[in-house]
């Protein structure tokens, strides 16, 4: 919080200096409730080794992120950093990415929604629309729907009965007696 105040005061003082106006830095600091000694100590402060390393790692993270076309997240960036000899945790990389305002772009997998033009030529009509067989177990039908409900429904066209099995564990358990007729 105080660092943000120091930055603001410095920017205002530089702007006033460029416009050749006189500004009382002490007055601004007093108005904002910050000590002059703290401000001047902040101006003279050199970055610590930790801060230098943090900035270097952030630069590497940005480079890897840009090379991946903004697709890599913290796990993959961590792997790349470790390959280059950097000792860093995935959590730290994620924290730095959040501070930098970058995140991986999730690419939705593409699913085929169009019907193939050769699809109908590949289908064969083996029943020839004869849905009334002369013996049991000659023609079985199933119904497919696009609503997943964990059930399989089979129908023997000879008997006209519909057999349903829940949870898809043993599909033919209910119809075992009929299959052996």
UniProtKB/TrEMBL annotation:
Pfam families referenced in this protein's UniProt entry, alphabetically: HTH_21
Domain of life: Bacteria
Alphabetized InterPro entries for the sequence: AceGlu_kinase-like_sf, HTH-like_dom, Transposase_IS3/IS150/IS904
Domain spans labelled HTH-like: 53-109
Coiled coil ranges: none
Name of the featured protein: Helix-turn-helix protein
Lineage: Bacteria, Bacillati, Bacillota, Clostridia, Lachnospirales
